[in-house]
Amino acid sequence: MAPTATDARAAGHDSRAEGRSSRAEGGFTALPRWAKEPVPGTGEQVRSVPDGVLAALRVRAGELGVPLGAILLAAHAKVLALLSGDPDVRSGYLVPGRTGPLPFALTVGPGTWRRLVLDARRAEAAVLSSGTGAPSRTGPEAVFAPVGHEVDVPPDGSVLLGVSAGEEGGGLVLRLRHRTDLLDADCAARIGGYHLAALEAIAAGPDAPHDRRNLLSEDELRFQLDGLAGPHRELPDRRFHELFEERVRRHPDAVAMVHRNRCWTYADLNTRANRLARALLAEGLGREETVAVVTERDLHWAAGVLGVLKAGGVYLPVDPGHPPGRIATMLSRADCSYVLTEPDSTTRLDRALATLPGTRRLLVPDITERDTDGTDLGLEIPADRLAYVFFTSGSTGEPKGALCEHAGLLNHLYAKIDDLVIGEGTVVAQTASQCFDISLWQLLAGLLTGGRTLLVEQEAVLDAERFLDRITEGRVNVLQVVPSYLDVILSALERAPRDLPDLRCVSVTGEALRGELVHRWFATGPAVRLVNAYGLTETSDDTNHEVMDRAPATDRIPLGRPIANVHQYVVDENLRPVPLGAPGAIVFSGVCVGRGYVNDAERTRLAYRADPHRPGRRLYRGGDFGRWRPDGKLEFLGRRDAQVKIRGFRVEIGEVEHTLLRVPGVTDCAVVVTGAEAYGRQLAAFCTGEGAATADDLRERLADLLPAYMVPAFFHRLDRLPLTANGKTDRKALTALAEELGPARDSRGAPRTPAERRLAAEWASELGVPPGRIRRDDNFFDLGGTSLTAVRLAVALDRVISPRDLAGRPVLADLARLIDTRTDGNP
Q1: What are the angstrom distances between the C-alpha of 79 and each of 93, 320, 660?
Q2: Is 106 helix (H, G, I), strand (E, B) or coil?
Q3: How many CB atoms lie within 10 A of CB 301?
Q4: Residue 586 pairs with which residues in a beta bridge?
Q5: Which CATH class is domain 754-824?
Q6: Among 362, 458, 524, 720, which residue's Cβ finds the most Cβ atoms within 10 Å?
Q7: Which pLDDT score is estimated for 14?
Q8: How far apart are CA 202 and CA 75, in angstroms?
Q9: What is the pTM of this model?
Q10: Biggest CA-to-CA distance, the chain
């Protein structure tokens, strides 16, 4: 496919961190690129202002005491704000008699059209009074010319769009000239339409709020609402477990699930799940009651998930390694009265249940291995019944549980089956933590088609070579990982090339996918399809798939098109679609949207709305910003809030800060993100207070309250937090300080031996720490190391050590001595 103009950004383009707007070089307002078939040259669109509108505008100009040109300029500024997603408009104004445009600035804040026109007049007067000012050297992308003048748009200049007005045949016309390689004729025509709509609004009522006026045509609105939606797919009027039971009847002896050296057939799995479902119902499980499954990722877990669904319960995944306080909070928030677990997963669970005396615990093997009724239950469960609840990080200090229904689950499973090509006999690897929403499709999708699920043990995931061995030996066809782990796999393959003969498709999700990684995959990895998947826990997991059979022409990797039965809109603050190509909030509608957050009416009210475009449908707005591309695919631009992704998990900075404030002696705190934008991100905490708690004390206390991925890598103590001019915590200053400080330091010795020096260099590379800051008695994990960076380190050191070695000897000098014993002192 030929590259679109969206991919070919002009030099100097830089998306803002929030993803909500963008600036061109020199700080000028950037226009969205939209050219389906870029062609060098210049085009022109001419739009006539209706006579009735023109007459009304002349009346309005007299009422407001401004020339007609001020009204035209106000409309132009409104359109630029709409196109850029930024109310602070900075473009070019062509002053008569000058050779080039002068900078023109206007803030298009909330208010009436009257106010906007008067502000535009003042801004215009400021430009005209400057008179002798020099044109900007970098040049604006949009230039406005007053009535009677025209804008020259060279085919290779910085100006993309020139807007002018002139009299023709006794009427007024708008003339839009544009670079055809970046704005095609259809796009220019739409922009002309926005100008006319703004003028019509001013003519109709100057005291109406301009921020409530939609400038898009009915055709564009209908295209965005329907033409960009996922295709319609009729879902069967059965739930996942019923479709699975059909597969059981068709091939009961086929292998359904494999873990280590054990495997269960479809009949084995079905019988055990049925026994668990009957046991839950015998205990009194009611409609849409929550059942927690607290097991490792093993065969008991698989039986537990299916058993809960068959019984009509709501599946709640809980990692048995979570801190007891976290487990108790999740169970309590979800009103969970039933827990399925296994003998080796109860240590922390027991401590959590001690605070929840009404919760009943059932041991999975005690139920599944008894010779009791294992036949199908045949319960009637409607499509809109709740299927599961996944907890994610919450900004208020408490995790929030996203509730999703059976229809959304089934729709997502079919999307995976279609786009990842999962059929009868396909082997799907289950690699993700059970608390990561992608774990569910990895577990279940293959069971709908007569495929097989391979449960990859965590020890293999933490060793790249062992993981590749497991994938090869298990004859895995379909795999999904986070991009940071794909990077690890690629590094291992680049160091020691090997065949992955059965692998047919790899999907990545959970983090933004870098173009560099995609190019490496197709250049040095196996000749395997790559799918960039995007979605939210609240939208039944992935809603977009970008399927790639080759490296794209650019480094910008789109999110892809919506999957079947999913509608997505890119909207403004009032949930109105923004122009095609303009940045805005990504919102979701359709069967994918869940029911809300469990027992959290306020957060549900803020995020879940009625879809104003589709009566009876729910709409979900998260915090992601993006824009549509000319090829009909969605592009991710960033977040609007303090949510980040750490190792693929969503982390609300606010929850970490709230938890830190519960530690005695901490009076104020702020947590910021450090490290590379892509896959090296870590949390750094700054604390104030009179207490003498050390970084180790704080780390240990948070480890009792939060999952490991939410515990900051670095802790720093300050007398007070820096503030911005308006009195808010200066997070930009803290981020810079965190990058400068790295881990808390004291005076320790530099690496001495060759092994220590090599190790220090590799630690610095993997951890993003300046090499000179690594000391011989540094602890890898205290410096911000994680299980994933440990895997990367093992690959970088040619597997002379393993992640398990590093866990047992995390201090640099100790690990270096181990390397010396294995390499005879020649690291």
Answers
A1: 15, 54, 45
A2: strand
A3: 25
A4: 570
A5: mainly alpha
A6: 362
A7: 32
A8: 8
A9: 0.83
A10: 95
Token pair, residue 265, equals 């057939």
Among the listed residues 647, 769, 751, 763, the one whose alpha carbon sits nearest the alpha carbon of residue 714: 769
- Rounded to a whole number of angstroms, the CA Rg of the chain reads 30
| 306 contacts 273 by C-beta, under 8 angstroms | yes
**Assigned superfamily of 643-730:** ANL, C-terminal domain (3.30.300.30)
> Rounded mean pLDDT of 73-99?
92
The structure tokens 């009195």 sit at 727
> What six digits make up the tokens of 424?
């009868």
Residue written as tokens 């104030």? 688
Query: What number of H helices and E strands is found in the chain?
Result: 25, 34
Three-state SS string over 634-658 comes to EEEEEECCCEEEECCEEEEHHHHHH
Give the residue among 561, 563, 559 at the shortest CA–CA distance from 590: 563
Residue-range domain boundaries for the chain: 42-215, 643-730, 754-824
Of the pLDDT bands very low, low, confident and very high (cuts 50, 70, 90), residue 208 is very high
Q: Say if residues 653 and 659 touch (Cβ distance below 8 Å).
A: no
The backbone torsions φ and ψ at residue 73, rounded to the nearest 5 degrees and listed phi first, read -70, -40
- Taking only the tens place, the pLDDT of each residue in 347-389 is 899 999 999 998 999 999 999 999 999 999 999 999 999 999 9
Structure tokens at 166: 């002139």
- Please check whether residue 142 is in contact with residue 161, taking contact to mean a CB–CB distance below 8 angstroms: yes
Task: Take residue 476 and report the two structure tokens written for it.
Answer: 């895995």
Residue of 107, 618, 711, 671 lying closest to 402 (CA atoms):
618
By the 10 Å C-beta count (0-12 exposed, 13-18 middle, 19+ buried), 99 is classed as exposed
The torsion defined by the Cα of 441, 447, 449 and 450, in degrees rounded to 10, comes to 150
- 144-170 pLDDT, tens per residue? 998 888 898 999 888 999 999 988 878
Q: Give φ, ψ of 258 to 5 degrees.
A: -130, 135
At 58, the amino acid letter reads: R
Cα–Cα distance between 521 and 44 in angstroms, integer? 42
Which CATH superfamily, name and number, covers 42-215? Answer: Nonribosomal peptide synthetase, condensation domain (3.30.559.30)
H or E element at residue 560 = none
